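User: Before I run my own analysis I want an independent prediction to cross-check against. Here's the chain; please return only the structure tokens and, at the end, one sentence I can use as a sanity check.
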Amino acid sequence: MNLPKKFSKESRRIHRQKIRKAHEEYLQENGLEGRFGEVWVWSCIDAAYKYILPDVIGSRSRRFGSELFEKIIGMRSNPDDDLLFQTDGYDVYQGLIAEYFASEILNYRNNHYNDKIPKTYTIPEHILYTMLTKKRNDHGEIESVEGTVIFGAEDRILNVLKDHNPKQGINTSYIERQNLSKRHFNARLRRKTIAYSKEYDCLVSQLHLHRMYQNFCWSHHTLRKQYGIDTSPAMAIGATDHIWQFHEIFRVPIY
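Assistant: Structure tokens:
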């Protein structure tokens, strides 16, 4: 029996180069950034109503963070209400909050990506921001978690936190739990499996489908206790008056 010959090291190298080149051309054609095999998902959730905002899929650069903040601004009903951000220690968030919500920006500076970001600015009292910093040991294990107030008065922040969970202080548990739910329902985001996403467009479509299901079809346990009936996040914000069946998702455009 004649067994097929294995691919030589040189042929495998040429094949990898072709794949990498095709990926880079795809990113350029679609106005995307990032390295070969890498994509970041920017996510945001309203902790009070459990409503998930549209994800932004791209690289970890400031440009894609800006797209997420534009969506946050578009979702606000009253610009004067208290707005609390809770994030991890990624330093881009602070600059984006200053850029989009500062009442006055005195001057700018360039970061290591050569982006022009605010240096000296004034933040309104109703814009609140806390950062959760995780300290890890040499093995990557979390040793301690510390919440820091960046913008706003601490008592005002605690009052906002009491509205959706009086037992919790500064935390990022809602978005982290949402990230876990995404990986649970969406095999394209699972690590170390053959199901991980290999096509950008398919990943975007699947994330939008999951978001619509979570917002309109899912009866959230916390909201059910709060309102006394089965309530989806979309019902909580007044976007619909009933929990959707799955087929109803396909009657409206997903954005």
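Sanity check: Strands lie at 40-42, 45-46, 51-52, 56-58, 83-87, 104-110, 116-122, 127-136, 142-151.
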